[in-house]
Amino acid sequence: MKLALIQLNPRLLQVRANLDAALRQMQDLEADLYLLPELFPCGYTFAEPSEVAGIAEAAGAGPTFDAMAGFARQRGASVVYGFAEAAGGRFYNSANVVGPGGLVGTYRKIHLFGREKLFFEPGRERAPVFDLPCGQIGLMVCFDWYFPEVARSLALGGAEILLQPANLVLPNCPDAMVTRSLENRIFSATCDRVGAETNQGVTHTFIGSSQVVTPLGKILTRLSRENEETAVVEVDLTLARSKKVGQYNDLFGDRQPALYSA
Description:
This protein has helices at residues 15-27, 49-55, 63-75, 148-156, 173-184; strands at residues 2-7, 33-35, 78-87, 90-99, 102-108, 129-132, 135-139, 161-165, 187-191, 196-199, 202-205, 211-213, 219-222, 229-234, 244-245, 249-250. By secondary structure, the protein is of the alpha/beta class. It has one domain: Carbon-nitrogen hydrolase (Nitrilase/N-carbamoyl-D-aminoacid amidohydrolase). The strands form 4 sheets. The protein has a 6-stranded mixed beta sheet with strand order 5-4-3-2-1-14. It has a 6-stranded mixed beta sheet with strand order 6-7-8-9-12-13, with helices on one face. It has a two-stranded antiparallel sheet with strand order 10-11. Helix 4 (148-156) packs parallel to helix 5.
C-alpha cells in the first residue's frame, strides 16, 4: 500500500482556502490512501462556540466532504481526514474515511484535549476498524494516543495500521507511537499540522513530525517540525498480521486480560 502524508499549515476558519491548499498538495502524489491532519479544513484555536458552528459540517455533506470524496473518486483511492462534525445540534472533533464510492465511515474523537472540551462533545462509540481495499485500518485522533487502550482495541479488532489525524502540541506523541506500534505489532501513521495559531489571546504551536512506523518500531519517515511537507511511503501491511516475538511468544496469545483489571 502506498500511503501519503499531507502535513499542512491550515488558516483558522478559512475553510475554502484550506481545502484548496490541501488539494494542491495531494494532486501530485500517487497513493492508495491519503492521510490529512485533525481539523485541517478549519484550524484549531477556537475562541467562541459560534466559530465552530460556522464551520462544522455533516459527516457526509458540505464542502470538505465534497472535496475529499471527489478526490477519492477521481483517484480511485481512500482519504482519511479530520474535521468539525455537526450532528443533532452538537459538535464533534471527528475523522472521516472516504473512498471512491463516498463515505465509508466516521469516528468521533473519544479523548478531547484541553480547550476542545469547551466546543466539542466526546465520542461515545469505540474507535473503529475499516476494511479498505488497501487493508484493515484503525482510526484514532490525536490525544487518543495517550490512552493505550485505544490502540490495543484497534489491534485486537484486526487493524493492520493505525491512522491518526493530529494537531499535536505536546512533544511526546511521535515517540509514543513507536511504542504503540511495538506493543501491538502494527503499523502506525500520524499526520500532524505545523505552524502557530492565536485567537483572542490563546496560542497553540504545533510540532509537525508526521510519521510512519513499522510493527517493529522502525520510523520509515518523519517530516519536519516547522514546514508544510508531504511524503509517500510504501508499507506491506501483511507484516502486521503476525504477533510473534521470537520462538515462544505471541503478543496477543500471551495476554492475560483477567489479571489486568484494576
